[in-house]
Amino acid sequence: MGSSSLLDYLSILSLLRLVILLLFLNFSTSLATPSTELTYGHFLHCLVKQTNSADEVSNIVYTQANPSYTSVLRAYIRNARFNTSSTPKPIIIVTALTKFHVQATVICAKSTGILLKIRSGGHDYEGLSYTSIEKPFVVLDMFNFRKINIDIHNEIAYVQAGATLGEFYYRISEKSKVHGFPAGACPTVGVGGHISGGGYGIMLRKYGLTIDHLIDAEIVDANGKLLNRKSMGEDLFWAISGGGGASFGVIISYTVKLVRVPEKVTGFRVQKTLEENATDLVLQWQKVAPYIDDRLFLMVILKPVNSNVNKGQKTISALISGLFLGGADEVVPILDKKFPLLGVKKENCTEMSWIESVPWWFGFPSGTPLEVLLNRDLDSANFFKRKSDYVQKPISRDGFESIWKKMIELGNIGLFFSPYGGRMSEIPADATPFPHRAGNLFEIQYFVDWFQPGEALEEFYLAQSRSLYSYLTPFVSKNPRSALQNYRDLDIGINHHDRNSYKEGKVYGLKYFNNNFYRLVKIKTAADPEDFFWHEQSIPTLPRNGGDKR
Ligand SMILES: Cc1cc2nc3c(=O)[nH]c(=O)nc-3n(C[C@H](O)[C@H](O)[C@H](O)COP(=O)(O)OP(=O)(O)OC[C@H]3O[C@@H](n4cnc5c(N)ncnc54)[C@H](O)[C@@H]3O)c2cc1C
Ligand SMILES: *[C@@H]1O[C@H](CO)[C@@H](O)[C@H](O)[C@H]1NC(C)=O
Ligand SMILES: *[C@@H]1O[C@H](CO)[C@@H](O)[C@H](O)[C@H]1NC(C)=O
Ligand SMILES: *[C@@H]1O[C@H](CO)[C@@H](O)[C@H](O)[C@H]1NC(C)=O
Q1: Where do the H-state alpha helices sit in 81-137?
Q2: Alpha carbons 286 and 309: distance in angstroms, whole number
């Protein structure tokens, strides 16, 4: 990913001319207006002025004509839907190497009126970190910010936005076998988007969310200032603890409190189909999973599969994946007593260290070296769509049976059920922007994956997800129908960056944040009154007439 050495020899002026020329060659005709070329020329000129070095700028700037542009862009695309020739692409990618580069990028994008998207791990379900409905735009890519410092003595860690969760877990385990961190299950997820957007994983019933363990943060705000918790103040710090970083600034790092984990944890999986009374299993799960010992996380994965019993017909497979923070001797009697239908015996359990449970949970074959957690070199992904919901009242047997029927009829869409309760019910709903605490039995994630490009195919699968979502309306939370912000879903609303911004933002904002939305809007209005940090689902500023009365 080196930069073109040719550029190193060019003066500022010829650099600009070259860039303008290259932009011109790469713009589609509709965008190739002299004014956009000039804007990008001004942006680059500003960067050169800020850094006082054309060399430095050419090292971190990738225009569409740079031979490495495509590989840089692709390196952190995690949904093949946004990896097509028609996907809107950034005019420029800035791969900042220093905090000052981040400040300069913000200052220059703001002063030249350029839309900036921020990317860390690239896992946004809707690709919002590297695509845009507003064209043209620049991506500030944070993958070079991956410093991790673990201070085991004080049980704290400093982790930069571009580090992955896998790297973070691995570095913790190098220092201690009895410490861990309660964040997401997927090792390649980036810290920048994950933590600022909430973040949860398999320890959530014991330790709550990632954002329940934040001590400090470094951000670059809308004025290009580098701030920490003290200098940004408690309001802004609260906002970037789950309100989504990209509405408020560029996250450079978080400092977090580590948690204790036992030397031994226990995993198990049980799978049943409808013919094996999966419905009974799920009904018992619903009664047990949100209330059982908070060291136990019992996730259900439901999907339509071919029936082995009734040939040529479909059934539903219910897979229960469990992790217990403790040994098999302790968990088997707990399950025997509370969840007998699961039928887990000691021989069905896998005991391992906490760090080994990370690849185990994610489905790597046992014996996979832990270094797999350090792998960020993927450049491959499925096409997929996700949606989310919250269940607050138990679903009846009839209810589940009708849902299975609908899933079988649709054929391709599955559901994850993640139980809440435990620590999640103890933390007040306004302690952080994340509002889905007490009163939620479990969270649903809808999932559908496909493997070929094409609009018709995409529409086919998207329609399935919308159909099941609509079907589940009577079973899930209402007023608002809640959603999990880190499971980005543009179906629930888009902000078009115009005078309706507040009205549009309120629609998804209430779903993601409930009444915390109003505090987020106030903080946003104070921190970024010009709405520089806009994206399709960002927190809007208050309209000048004051908006509604909250
Ligand atoms: C395979 C997979 C598994 C997942 N598993 C889990 C899970 O177990 N638990 C869970 O809670 N979530 C999970 N997620 C969702 C994940 O937490 C979110 O997609 C998260 O936002 C990804 O962060 P990122 O940095 O990788 O993504 P990006 O796409 O880089 O960013 C996501 C959002 O955050 C913004 N952003 C990124 N970096 C910064 C920054 N430095 N400063 C300001 N804003 C920034 C982006 O602009 C974008 O709006 C999963 C996602 C995938 C694809
Ligand atoms: C399913 O439940 C029925 C009724 O309780 C029982 O008779 C049957 O044996 C069960 N089937 C399996 C495979 O467990
Ligand atoms: C537990 O293991 C035994 C022995 O391998 C097996 O027969 C049984 O089906 C397993 N039970 C579950 C719930 O997986
Ligand atoms: C993007 O597309 C390219 C070329 O079609 C392919 O090689 C690459 O693996 C894809 N990456 C992702 C993340 O889908």
Answers
A1: 99-112
A2: 26
H helix intervals, 123-228: 165-175, 191-196, 204-207
**What CA–CA distance (Å, rounded) separates 489 from 486?**
9
The span from the CA of 266 to the CA of 352, in Å, is: 6
Nearest to 108 by CA among 54, 66, 47: 47
AA letter at 221: D
What is the reported pLDDT for 366?
Answer: 82
Asked whether 54 and 10 are in contact (CB, 8 A), the reply is: yes
346 ligand 3 Cβ < 6 A: no
pLDDT tens-digit readout, 511-530: 999 999 999 999 999 999 99
Q: How far is the CA of 119 from the centre of ligand 1 (A)?
A: 9
Summarised one tens digit per residue, pLDDT across range 116-171 is 999 999 999 999 999 999 888 999 999 999 999 999 999 999 999 999 999 999 99
Question: Residue 377 has what pLDDT?
Answer: 80
Asked: is 148-260 a CATH 2.60.40.10 domain? The reply is no
Whether residue 96 is predicted with pLDDT greater than 70 in this model: the reply is: yes
Largest CA distance in the chain: 76
Tell me if the domain spanning 265-352+382-475 has CATH number 3.40.462.20: yes
Q: In the chain, what are the domain boundaries?
A: 3-140, 148-260, 265-352+382-475
Q: Read off the amino acid at residue 511.
A: K
User: Cα separations (Å) of 90 from 129, 134, 306?
Assistant: 10, 10, 43
Q: In what order do the strands lie in the sheet with 442-450?
A: 350-352, 265-273, 314-324, 296-306, 414-419, 442-450, 383-391
pLDDT bracket for residue 6 (50, 70, 90): very low
Residue 219: nearest ligand to its CA? 1
Distance of CA 58 to the CA centre of its chain: 30
User: Could you tell me if the CB of 344 is within 6 A of ligand 3?
Assistant: yes
Q: Which of 377-381, 496-500, 514-518 has the highest mean pLDDT?
A: 514-518
Q: 396 CB contacts (<8 Å, ≥6 apart)?
A: none
For the chain, the average pLDDT equals 93
**Measured from the CA of 77, which atom of ligand 4 is nearest?**
13
Ligand 3, residue 348: give the atom nearest the CA: 1
40 is catalytic: no
Q: Which fold would CATH assign to domain 3-140?
A: 3.30.43
What is the pairing mode between strands 265-273 and 350-352? antiparallel
